[in-house]
Specification:
With about 190 residues, this protein is an all-alpha fold. The protein contains nine helices and no strands.
Length: about 190
């Protein structure tokens, strides 16, 4: 029985979808755990570390009906699954915008970086280049200006840059639930 955010997130990390590769040399779970560790080691503030750890939960299927219809396999099959928006909406039950907005915007951040840093495209994995085409390609100048106006744009760009570093098949990652989870960034109960 899922009783709160830690249980719900642990259930997603243990789901079959978390073991998918989605075109990368690591599973979704390993990717998320690597990214959270990279964000923390890089001095990211707690809310951004949480966003890094959770940015791709919208790819995962779990027992929670709010995410049951979401799958990363849809994206790899050429259908934009809007995993940033879906993941952010699911996480909003427990986390404030400082966590959920960078999650929501991390795909837009990839599109933004491809538009404003021409060399960025060359840093993307083959799978990320493919998903970029499914997600709308590089932003137009107008889209980039609109993205830059978001108070969460800089955080989303940091999450995106960490995303690119978190695909190392040789990295050792912690197991979800192995240690008490760091709950910084959770909403304070009413």
């Amino acid at each position: 029985m899922i009783t709160g955010p830690v249980d719900a997130i642990a259930e997603l990390f243990g789901s079959a979808g978390a073991r998918d590769y989605l075109g990368e040399p690591v599973t979704v779970a390993a990717h998320l755990l690597q990214e959270g560790a990279i964000a923390e080691a890089g001095g990211g503030p707690p809310a951004l570390v949480a966003a890094a750890l959770l940015h791709d939960v919208g790819h995962l299927r779990g027992a929670d009906v709010a995410v049951a219809e979401v799958s990363g396999r849809d994206l790899m099959a050429g259908r934009d699954n809007r995993h940033g928006a879906r993941g952010a909406a699911w996480l909003a039950r427990w986390f404030p915008p400082a966590v959920t907005e960078p999650v929501r915007l991390h795909v837009a951040a990839k599109r933004y970086l491809c538009a404003v840093e021409p060399s960025y495209l060359g840093l993307l994995s083959e799978a990320s280049v493919y998903t970029l085409s499914v997600q709308g390609g590089p932003m137009s100048a107008a889209e980039a200006r609109e993205f830059e106006s978001s108070p969460y744009a800089a955080g989303a760009v940091r999450v995106r840059r960490w995303d690119d570093q978190a695909k190392d098949p040789a990295a050792v990652v912690a197991r979800v639930g192995a240690k008490p989870p760091h709950q910084a960034g959770l909403k304070t109960p009413p």
